[in-house]
Design goal:
The structure is a single chain. The chain has helices spanning about 20-35, 50-55, 65-80, 100-110, 120-140, 150-165, 170-175, 195-200, 225-235, 260-270, 325-330, 365-395, 425-440, 470-495; strands at about 145-150, 185-190, 210-215, 240-245, 270-275, 300-305, 315-320, 400-405, 410-415, 445-450, 455-460. It is of the alpha/beta class. It folds into three domains: about 20-85; about 105-375, Type I PLP-dependent aspartate aminotransferase-like (Major domain) (Aspartate Aminotransferase, domain 2, 3-Layer(aba) Sandwich), CATH 3.40.640.10; about 375-495, Aspartate Aminotransferase, domain 1. The strands form two sheets. The protein has a seven-stranded mixed sheet, sandwiched between helices. The chain has a four-stranded antiparallel sheet with strand order 8-9-11-10. A hairpin with a 7-residue loop joins strand 8 and strand 9. Helix 6 (about 150-165) crosses helix 8 (about 195-200). The structure holds pyridoxal-5'-phosphate (PLP). The site of pyridoxal-5'-phosphate has 14 residues, from helix 6.
Length: about 500
């Protein structure tokens, strides 16, 4: 760089012209509200043209360009090719639909810019209050602790880590898993989310240390079989440590019997962890909260506000009944991070409750949305999703060419198009093709799964915008596509026979 090109003044990232920056910000808000208001008319998802894909190749931009131009690229190349989970007919996996208040809050959180690792800030108190709200919703006693995480996977990992350290009988923090005398065993039903398998690997216990108990047609944890497994493991010299009960399984939404799991954990002296990433917040729903009775008895509970609470990604939460055990598992203060009686470092160190030191202000999007709408509205929305799943189930039960695969317990429906006579392999191919065409045509986005060996489409009604007519349309389109595809392959088979 020639000397003459060196900056003559000191640099910062602030705009040269704040009035221009403000105008662009306003345009973004205008575009965003228009985008959300017209969502229903847009395709749920659309395939990306090669030209758009190509726009994301290329090296580091050394010289900048006006933010207006970068924003135009976002409008043309990013936003139209979103996942679609904000759309009322996005029914795949298990995701919230986001919300405008949460989007504004994410912006404001960045303006506040606090690091939530700790410190005497209002942001710190916002997170502390949000965690206390979740504690009250779940009905855990005061003195319970919690932390917001990137999502349910890390929330579960934290809960299962506390369980390991408490149950190990040695100081795992200092001496590591090699010091554990008898190998620890964790238990869950075969419907447990793979986040728990991953956690077992990360914890150094190994995925095989999670013993999965086979489920029957109700897809719930079989307490009698669990009891036998525990006895067998004790006899074999292993150390049963923790039961992972699931409140709302990812495959079908089945609910483990939480009170029975608590009673068993008391009898056997085990840690009770609940993976409530799907179902814990049913505790807010006036019509269906009985489904999660007993969740308040758990030792640790993972929940996921970016699912049924509709918070924009990402935010999860772990709650631990005994806050001291939780803190002991993670607390660490370097000499560069001592607490002080006054000043910025006098606030609580939220980083003492998890893996992250620097932490974002995730709490704000939850805090603002719950204040705006009230917990009662969120509870009614959860009831509404469950009622919609019952509505869809009734539609399918009336369809001669469709069947349900598992009981509908909460807001997940498993179904398939089944014209009769087809083999399991043919049904699988047929239903996958139906699913892909629904996605590619922008009509709806269901996902698929396999329940006890039977492949099916899987509809999770989480989005706060989904209505009955969306489900009517879904059933009509599955019927149309199923007939279309099956008559084609049927002809082909006929020709070759
Ligand atoms: C979604 C989910 C998880 C994982 O949570 P993430 O937020 O995706 O990390 C774990 N368990 C269950 C039951 C889930 O539904």
């Amino acid at each position: 760089m020639p000397d003459s090109a060196l900056p003559t003044s000191e640099q910062s990232l602030d705009p040269d012209d704040w009035a221009q920056a403000r105008a662009l910000g306003r345009r973004m808000i205008d575009d965003a509200t228009h985008h959300l208001a017209s969502l229903r008319e847009a395709p749920v998802w659309q395939p990306m043209p090669d030209a758009v894909r190509a726009a994301f190749k290329g090296g580091v931009p050394v010289d900048g360009q006006p933010l207006e131009e970068v924003y135009d690229q976002f409008l043309a190349q990013v936003l139209p090719y979103a996942m679609g989970n904000k759309h009322p007919r996005f029914l795949a996996w298990y995701m919230g639909g986001s919300n405008f208040t949460g989007a504004l809050a994410d912006f404001l959180a960045a303006i506040d810019a606090s690091n939530l690792g700790g410190g005497d800030t209002a942001a710190n108190l916002v997170e502390t209050q949000v965690i206390d709200w979740f504690r009250q919703i779940i009905n855990l006693p005061e003195g319970s602790s919690g932390t917001l995480t990137s999502g349910g996977s890390v929330a579960n990992l934290i809960g299962l880590t506390v369980a390991r350290n408490v149950m190990a009988g040695v100081d795992v923090r200092l001496d590591g898993v090699a010091a554990i005398q008898r190998p620890l065993r964790y238990y869950a039903s075969d419907q447990v989310h793979h986040a728990s398998d991953k956690a077992m690997g990360v914890l150094g216990l190994g995925e095989r240390a999670l013993r999965k108990i086979a489920t029957g047609p109700d897809l719930r944890l079989d307490i009698a079989a669990l009891e036998l497994a525990i006895a067998e493991d004790r006899a074999a010299g292993l150390q049963p440590a923790c039961v992972i009960a699931t409140a709302g399984t990812v495959n079908t939404g089945s609910m483990d019997d939480l009170r029975a799991v608590r009673a068993l954990c008391d009898r056997e002296g085990l840690w009770m962890h609940v993976d409530g990433c799907i179902g814990a917040l049913i505790a807010m729903a006036p019509e269906h909260r009985d489904l999660v009775l007993g969740i308040e008895l758990a030792d640790s509970i993972a929940l996921d506000p970016h699912k049924w609470l509709q918070a924009p990604f990402d935010v999860g939460c772990i709650l631990v009944r005994d806050g001291a055990l939780h803190r002991t598992t993670f607390v660490h203060h370097g000499e560069y991070l001592e607490e002080r009686p006054r000043g910025v470092a006098s606030g609580e160190f939220l980083a003492d409750y998890g893996l992250q030191l620097s932490r974002g202000f995730r709490a704000l999007k939850v805090w603002m949305a719950i204040k705006e709408h009230g917990a009662a509205r969120f509870g009614r929305l959860i009831d509404q999703s469950i009622d919609l799943a019952q509505y869809l189930s009734a539609l399918i039960d009336r369809e001669p060419l469709m069947e349900r695969i598992a009981p509908t317990i909460i807001n997940i429906v498993t179904l398939r198009f089944n014209p009769g006579q087809a083999s399991e392999a043919e049904l699988r191919a047929l239903n996958i093709e139906i699913m892909l065409r629904l996605q590619e045509q922008g009509i709806a986005v269901p996902s698929d799964t396999t329940v006890h060996g039977r492949h099916c489409l899987r509809v999770a009604i989480v989005n706060h915008r989904t209505r009955r007519d969306d489900l009517d349309l879904l059933v009509n389109e599955i019927r149309r596509l199923g007939r279309e595809i099956y008559s084609l392959t049927g002809d082909a088979q006929g020709a070759s026979a």
